[in-house]
Amino acid sequence: MLNTAPGPTLLGFDVILVGSILAGIAALAVMLAIYAAVTVKDPMAKRVKSLTARREELKAGIVAAATKKRQSVVRKSDTTDRIKGTLQSLQVLQDSQVKQVQQKLAQAGYRNKEWAVAVIFARMVLPVVLGLWAATMVYWLDAFPEWGSFKRFMFFAGAVLAGYKGPDIFLANQISKRTKAIRRGLPDALDLLVICAEAGLTVDAAFNRVAKELGRAYPELGDEFALTAIELSFLTERRQAFENFAYRVNLESVRGVVTTMIQTERYGTPLASALRVLSAEFRNERMMRAEEKAARLPAIMTVPLILFILPVLFIVILGPAACSISDAFSSPR
């Protein structure tokens, strides 16, 4: 007969079985790591492609502005065209709403403005889809029979609300991440702009140089500077290029930089001195934010201290005394 004796156990668990599961997980993690290393892509490739497309768009727009329509320049999609036609037939597409969504898409890093109609369409369709799914789960299929009527209604209402607010929450998340990344690199970018201006470079060349130097450390900021440099080279009004920069980034500090650049272009004031003052202000602001976070740290650490650290400390200090007292009372007289 075969030996069916159980294997060694630790805390009630089969050691061989647990070891086999952990070995399988480790092998899967190694395979995933090798796959990620083999299929890694250059993070700048997509950004360079979008910047090249923007440069070609501006070139074509300037060359054919007087003779041709810009149908070949504007990137259109059959899908977005059909969505736009559907929304217009339902009379739910407003120009102000489209412009607002287009600005949010630009601030989130999505260059294609045609996706604005897709976001508006998702706001209208997702509540219906998720609401039907929730109603099917809780009322028709009775997936949660122990739930009462109130819980079922709240699940249905939550699904509808998630469908309506989902696209906006996603865009707000992307905007917040991108804004934080740009805010971190802005003082360094201004320092490099000061150096480039003092070296005698033009504004276009200075923006290009900063984009190349900061493209790896701060790719979002390098992307914006490169796009601004392209627009400065091809747009007929340089003021519009700076205003587009402020349009794409949701930061007060960027608006201050744009205002400074426009004023130096208009009145001929020294660019290096103005940028140096702005850079010092932004560094002071970053230091103040760090000090604010450090000042909030004691209040934040109060709850973990009470819940996790103090009970362990009491056990370590009072545990031996409690054991001695227990032994003293339990020992026979």
Structure description:
By secondary structure, the protein is mainly alpha-helical. It is built from eleven helices and two strands, in the order ββααααααααααα. It has helices at residues 15-38, 43-63, 78-89, 95-108, 115-140, 149-198, 203-214, 219-234, 238-248, 252-267, 271-330; strands at residues 9-10, 13-14. The chain has a two-stranded antiparallel ribbon. Strand 1 (9-10) and strand 2 (13-14) form a beta hairpin.
Spatial order of the strands in the main sheet? 1-2
The share of residues in extended strands comes to under 5%
Would you tell me the structural class of the helices and strands? mainly alpha
Shape: extended
Distance between the termini: 56 Å
Summary keywords:
single chain; 333 residues; two-stranded antiparallel sheet; 11 helices; 2 strands
Quick recap of the structure?
By secondary structure, the protein is mostly helical.
Helix and strand layout, with pairings?
Blueprint lengths: L8 E2 L2 E2 H24 L4 H21 L14 H12 L5 H14 L6 H26 L8 H50 L4 H12 L4 H16 L3 H11 L3 H16 L3 H60 L3
Antiparallel strand pairs: 1-2
